[in-house]
Specification:
By secondary structure, this protein is of the alpha+beta class. The protein is globular and about 45 Å long. Strands 1, 2, 3, 4, 8, 9 and 10 form a seven-stranded mixed beta sheet that branches. It has a three-stranded antiparallel beta sheet with strand order 7-6-12, with no helix packed on it. The chain has a two-stranded antiparallel sheet with strand order 5-11. It is built from five helices and twelve strands.
């Protein structure tokens, strides 16, 4: 098979895989800052990690405790509001949840969470949202206005 034919076959397979990726759309319920539910299906937002529901941080300005996990979930709920959320499956996580990229009115939900500072780029799995994380860090947005433990490290100490 020629190089051009091989490339065409690979592109065709990639297009078929994308077409076969499960899509799910509807109104979403927020489980936490990086997990939603649509029509009974749990969906973990691909490429981000938000603080856990019980996770707290400390304000750099006042030294007071900030409920970062709760704030992340509230930000996500406000972002999704009454909109239709469209998610495209990227795989399954170890708990069987759909991993997906989700959008609201054409806006990438994961990028919005990271840019607002209420989630981090989950670099152990993806580097996709590093530019948004840099924006949030520079702006001191969300968790970046606090002293915090990365969610993946916080879970290690609390499970």
């Amino acid at each position: 098979m020629s190089r051009a034919a091989t490339s065409a076959a690979i592109l065709s397979l990639a297009a078929m895989a994308a077409a076969n990726a499960e899509s799910l759309a509807g109104r979403a319920s927020v489980i936490d800052g990086d997990t939603i539910e649509i029509h009974g299906a749990r969906i973990r937002l691909e490429g981000i990690d938000a603080p856990e529901s019980r996770q707290t941080c400390m304000s750099k300005e006042t030294g007071q405790v900030v409920r970062c996990g709760q704030k992340a979930a509230f930000f996500l709920a406000d972002l999704l509001a009454e909109h239709t959320v469209t998610c495209t499956e990227a795989g399954k996580d170890r708990y069987g949840r759909m991993l997906a990229h989700c959008a609201v009115e054409g806006q990438d939900v994961g990028a919005s969470m990271v840019r607002a500072g209420w989630a981090l780029a989950f670099v152990g799995y993806s580097r996709e949202y590093l530019p948004q994380e840099d924006e949030a860090r520079t702006a001191g947005a969300g968790m970046w206005a606090t002293e915090f433990v990365a969610p993946w490290d916080w879970r290690k100490g609390h499970r």
